[in-house]
Each structure stands twice: as structure tokens, then as C-alpha cells.
Design goal:
Radius of gyration: 23 Å
Number of helices: 15
Mean pLDDT: 89
Strand content: 15-25%
Strand order of the largest sheet: 4-10-9-8-7-5-6
Low-confidence stretches: 1-19, 27-50, 374-380
Number of strands: 19
Helix content: 25-40%
Shape: globular
């Protein structure tokens, strides 16, 4: 449907149920055929003999991808770099393809495609608001990613911001007046330390990660919100890691601001969002100066808009916004319990396997999160996402990561993961190796990784590698690159 008043309705958001343009498009016969959820069966893919344990929960764009390995041959790709960026859900890619013919510049366009595109963007605000349990008067501002969203919020904070030292750089660097609290040995002690800092000197904002991108440990955001509010502060949550794995409800948790990225939530099309209270955002300078953010421009002055338009100057990323909304809808369709059960089984399998590997240490921040592998308590302590970062007693994790990719077709990540202060405190080596799982992961993925890891630790790589400015790479790389030209 095309509703001329829809933008005004969606600017200050209620989470009511409406039929969206996306749903109308989905109802078209040709579109509906493309948007059926696919049950993934990789049992006939070479190298994917299924072991006991869960298979993929959802169909992703990289399912069944085969990649070349050194010396010739192909291996089924095992993607254990989900925490960095997740492939698109199949239904998201299909939805984007279906929407593309209707793409046009939004707002004020009189043509049919422009009106469709405008409604798609405003519909997406409602989808995002519903998914995160936004309050009726919260704003949903579309951004490029979590980093962009937190930088936007940083310009609106009327005072100090308190953060933990374990934060990703995106939640450590943007704040103009920052106070850093060192995370303690337990979550309980860390809550006490934050409370003490907020009591020592007032702050406007407490900004915390919802889940560590290094360890996967989940922080109890409801308890943190209570601490912040009791000390007269608001709370923002960097949900880049948390939102794709756990449902976040702003009203239920008391969180004031939430930032997240589409590319970690199975919609890698360049959009993210900042959701939260309007007053600070309406009082802040426009994030970008340009068209769409103004009511009137004069040579000697500007009248800036309020609401989401104030911070969304320029042509928006319509495709990315549509993809983000469709991905959130797919997460809802998969179900919170099903996603959590799937991930829990894989997390236990991963950590049990790593515990059995000689010469391997799993990095963690809190002593009271070990319970997360057996289930979390009502206070939210002990929960952990399917992320594990390891360090080796001997040898280079960079070399290990390179060999996993080049010889086994397994993607992981090595480094300090944009969390340098935390890594320097928690790790005993200069770099770590991170494996991370998601909705498209399977028990076979975990087993492939553990077997390859054991082999490489015991026997070393089968090929020669050399270290360059960009890290370790094969001395002779005979893997052909795909050709994407016409």
C-alpha cells in the first residue's frame, strides 16, 4: 500500500501492527514463491558428513559454498567469522531482488516507485520499533552501522559517559567526555564498580556492550539499566553482537538507546539503526548537514527539522533499510527459543571441544559466566553467545588462522578484534583467534573446526607461509579467484 501520511505516523513510533508495503509485495504470487523459508540439508554436500547435533537453523546466502584450498581441490566452506559480518538470509536476498525494480528516491517524489520506496523505508521503522520493543515516542534513526549510530548518539549526550574497558572501539572512542571503568573478575563485581563510579560523580550516560565481541559473554542489561537510572543516568547498549542472537526489549529492560548493524544481523546491505528517546536527539546538532534535514535554508541561517529527519540528511540507503527490516522479521519467524536452543547446543559443543585441545586457552572476562554453558539464571548472569576466542601456549594464531582458511576452507578471525584495552588486560599473548557461530551454523561446522585445529596444532600447516604487512599468507597461493565480470 502507499499511504501519504505514513512518514508522519512512523516518525514517532508506536509498535502497532500495520500491513506494510513489503507484505503487499510478498503477497504477489511470483514473490511468494521466492520468499518461502528453506529447510537446509547439506548432507549431500561434499565433505559435510553430518555428525550428531544440530544442523543449520536458517538458509543463508553462503550455504553449500565450496572454496578452493591449497594444492587443488575444493572444500565446503565453514564460516566461523559470523561475529565480524554475517551472510544474508536467503529470504533477505530474495526480498531485496524483489524490491529493486521499485527503487527510487524517497520523500517528495510523485512517481509510483518513489512512493513505494518511501513507504518501504517508513514501514521498516515500524518493523524495527516492534522488534526491539520501542516506546511509543522513541525514534528509529537509520544509520550505516553500529559505529555510526553510537557516533550520532555521542553528539547528543549532555554530559559524561561511563563505559567499561572491555568495549569494542565503536563504544569506547566516540564519547566526548568519557570515564572508563575496568571490568572486574565477575559480573556482580563489575556491576558494583559501575554503580560506585556513577555514585562518585554524576554522568549523563552509561554505555555498555550487550555482549562482548571477544568472549561472547552477555551483560545483564536490565540490571545495568536499573543501576544507571538509580544514579540519574541513561543507558545505551551496543547491541551489534547481542541483537542477532538475543531478543532485546527496550521497554522491558529499561534501556534508553540501542545501536545495532544490519550486517551482523543477516542483512549485509549497509544499514544500521539507533533507537531511543527523542529529547536528546532533537536537541543535538544535525548529524549531517544537508538536504532532508532542514525545514528552511536562508543565506544567514537554517531551520533544522526534529525527529528522525534531523539526523538522516541525504538520500537514505533504501535497499539496506529494507533488508534490515526483512532480516528482523525472519529472526522473529525463526523464534527466540529455537534460536537460543540451536546456539546453546553449538556453544557447548564448541567450548567442550576447545577444553579438550592441548595448548589452547579460551579467553573470558568474568568468572561467573561459565554457567552460561549450562544455562543462565533469571538475573541474566552467565549467558554467553556462540563466540570463543583462544590463544595458544606456543605458535602464532595468525598462522593458524591462515592455514585454517587456505588448507581447510574454514574462516575464522585473528587479532585483537577492535577491543585493544580489554585484550591487553585479559590475554597473555598479543593476538587471539576467534570462532563465532550463527543461525546458519551446524554441529558439522564445529567438528570440522575442532578437527582441523587439532591437526594444525599437532602437526603444523602442510604448506609454507610467510608474514606480510597484512598478516600470514601462503608463500605460493594456487587458489583461483572467482570471476565476476560479464
Amino acid at each position: 500500500m502507499i499511504v501519504s501520511e505514513q512518514r508522519a505516523t512512523a516518525t514517532r513510533l508506536g509498535a502497532r501492527r500495520v500491513q506494510t508495503v513489503s507484505e503487499v509485495l510478498d503477497a504477489l504470487p511470483a514473490a511468494a514463491q521466492n520468499d518461502v523459508a528453506i529447510e537446509v540439508d547439506v548432507s549431500d554436500v561434499p565433505g559435510s558428513a553430518r555428525s550428531a547435533g544440530p544442523g543449520p537453523l536458517a538458509a543463508l546466502a553462503d550455504a553449500g559454498l565450496e572454496v578452493p584450498v591449497l594444492g587443488g581441490g575444493l572444500a565446503r566452506h565453514v564460516n566461523l567469522d559470523i561475529a565480524a559480518s554475517a551472510p544474508a538470509f536467503d529470504v533477505v536476498a530474495a526480498h531485496v531482488a524483489r524490491v529493486l525494480p521499485y527503487y527510487a528516491s524517497v520523500h517528495r517524489g510523485t512517481g509510483y516507485p518513489s512512493q513505494v520506496s518511501t513507504s518501504l523505508v517508513e514501514d521498516a521503522r515500524l518493523v524495527v520499533a516492534r522488534h526491539v520493543g520501542a516506546r511509543d515516542d522513541d525514534l528509529v534513526v537509520f544509520t550505516r552501522n553500529t559505529t555510526d549510530a553510537l557516533n550520532l548518539l555521542a553528539r547528543a549526550v549532555p554530559g559524561d559517559t561511563v563505559v567499561l574497558d572491555l568495549e569494542h572501539h565503536a563504544n569506547l572512542l566516540p564519547w566526548h567526555s568519557r570515564r572508563v571503568v575496568e571490568a572486574q573478575a565477575t559480573i556482580t563485581d563489575t556491576l558494583d564498580a559501575l554503580d560506585a563510579e556513577l555514585a562518585r560523580r554524576p554522568a549523563a550516560l552509561l554505555s555498555v556492550t550487550g555482549a562482548s565481541n571477544v568472549t561472547g559473554e552477555v551483560l545483564p542489561i536490565g540490571l545495568l539499566a536499573g543501576i544507571a537510572h538509580a544514579r540519574g543516568a541513561r543507558i545505551a547498549v551496543d547491541a551489534a553482537q547481542l541483537l542477532p542472537h538475543r531478543r532485546v526489549d527496550l521497554v522491558a529492560s529499561g534501556v534508553d538507546y540501542l545501536a545495532f548493524s544490519g550486517h551482523k544481523a543477516y542483512a549485509p546491505y549497509g544499514a544500521g539503526a539507533l533507537v531511543g528517546r527523542a529529547d536528546w536527539l532533537d536537541s543535538a546538532p544535525a548529524y549531517l548537514a544537508g538536504g532532508g534535514a532542514v525545514d528552511t535554508v536562508r543565506i544567514d541561517g537554517v531551520d533544522w527539522k526534529h525527529g528522525v529527519e534531523r539526523h538522516e540528511a541525504g538520500t537514505p540507503n533504501v535497499v539496506g533499510i529494507v533488508a534490515l527490516a526483512r532480516a528482523l522479521a525472519e529472526l522473529e519467524r525463526l523464534g527466540d527459543d529455537a534460536r537460543r536452543d540451536h546456539e546453546h547446543a553449538l556453544t557447548v559443543r564448541l567450548h567442550d571441544g576447545l577444553a579438550a585441545q592441548p595448548g589452547v586457552r579460551v579467553i573470558r572476562s568474568f568468572a561467573d559466566t561459565a554457567a552460561g554453558l549450562a544455562g543462565s539464571d533469571d538475573a541474566g548472569l552467565g549467558d554467553r553467545l556462540a563466540i570463543a576466542t583462544i590463544e595458544l601456549e606456543r605458535g602464532s594464531v595468525g598462522l593458524l588462522a591462515a592455514a585454517l582458511g587456505a588448507e581447510h576452507g574454514i574462516s575464522v578471525r585473528a587479532g585483537r578484534f577492535c577491543a585493544h584495552p580489554f585484550f591487553e588486560r585479559a590475554a597473555s599473548r598479543s593476538n587471539g583467534l576467534r570462532a563465532s557461530l550463527g543461525a546458519g551454523s551446524s554441529a558439522d561446522d564445529v567438528d570440522r573446526f575442532l578437527a582441523a585445529l587439532a591437526s594444525l596444532i599437532a602437526d603444523g600447516p602442510a604448506h609454507a607461509y610467510e608474514r606480510s604487512h597484512g598478516g600470514w599468507c601462503p608463500r605460493v597461493d594456487d587458489r583461483p579467484r572467482p570471476h565476476f565480470g560479464d
